[in-house]
Amino acid sequence: MSIDYVVKSAEKIKNMEVRGAGRIAKFCAKVLMEYAMEIKKNFDEEMKKAAEILLNTRPTAVSLYNSIYYVMDYSGESDEEKRESLVKRAKEFIEWVDTAQKEIGRIGSRRIKSGSTILTHCNSASALSVIKEAYRKGKDIEVFATESRPRYQGHLTAKELSAEGIPVTLIVDSAVRYFIREIDYVIVGADAITVNGSLVNKIGTSQIALIAKEARVPFMVAAETYKFSPKTLLGESIVIEERDPAEVAPEELRSLVKIRNPAFDITPRHYIDLIITEIGAIPPEMAYLVIKERLGYRLLGEDELKLSVHHYD
């Protein structure tokens, strides 16, 4: 297995064959583990190269960053000891992803009352775990799912929930305010949670949060603790990725006008009622403690963690 395997895996993240914060994090851990198992020499150098390639795929995906830094915080004297340590950490992280979503579903489902209508945005495995678990517990619920343009991830959400037997209504993103009076809860996922409790998520989330606030509809976020951003504790901002204009408009229009296509936006913490994590349901103000206590080891300097990030063209 050559570095081409890592490059091809990175392309799958860039072009959204692999999408969703949790799925990306798990995929990165798996790629690093599989590559590590094939390296014959120069273990540290090869792993640094692989990690840097993956780190530069989706700048907003904090889960990707935390996944890579968790796996790369390996130890050992010989290459074989280092390999064993890295593989162990990768398996630990993958287990973290799997168990966290189940716990979020269990904890979050308790917040949902039978007879409720829930609005969700994009296609978050964590948010859907809350909805599915509530339904499996016998609660009578229905869901409104936004299309989540321009990639239409909401279509995936609608299909997934419908397959569970949950009644789903698919709406265009701009219809949220029209339907908000029919909604009892908004539940969304997260690509990142900052130190001040703000949410970085699929573009359109902040507008939905504002509408929910105006209508006094509880706005809840389902987020594993590996989506909390330690970099923001050190003063760094999260980079908002802008994607290809071709996702938005055909060539004849792109040749005439400038097109902007941000993939994410930021929802201030005062629009968020609750963040549901695998360690419990917390107010956004507790984000600082989660980052410090759960992710504090990653506040080490990047040089101490075996790699420094730079761009590969």
UniProtKB/TrEMBL annotation:
Reactions it catalyzes: alpha-D-ribose 1,5-bisphosphate = D-ribulose 1,5-bisphosphate
Chain residues that bind substrate: R19, G20, A21, G22, R58, N201, K202, K227
Keyword Isomerase on entry: yes
Any Gene Ontology biological process: pentose catabolic process
EC number: 5.3.1.29
GO MF term list: ribose 1,5-bisphosphate isomerase activity; S-methyl-5-thioribose-1-phosphate isomerase activity
Gene3D superfamilies according to UniProt: translation initiation factor eif-2b, domain 1, Translation initiation factor eif-2b, domain 2
List of catalytic residues: C122, D191
Keyword Transcription regulation assigned: no
Family recorded in the similarity comment: Belongs to the eIF-2B alpha/beta/delta subunits family. R15P isomerase subfamily.
Note: Reaction proceeds via a cis-phosphoenolate intermediate.
Biological role: Catalyzes the isomerization of ribose 1,5-bisphosphate (R15P) to ribulose 1,5-bisphosphate (RuBP), the CO(2) acceptor and substrate for RubisCO. Functions in an archaeal AMP degradation pathway, together with AMP phosphorylase and RubisCO.
Protein's name according to its UniProt entry: Ribose 1,5-bisphosphate isomerase
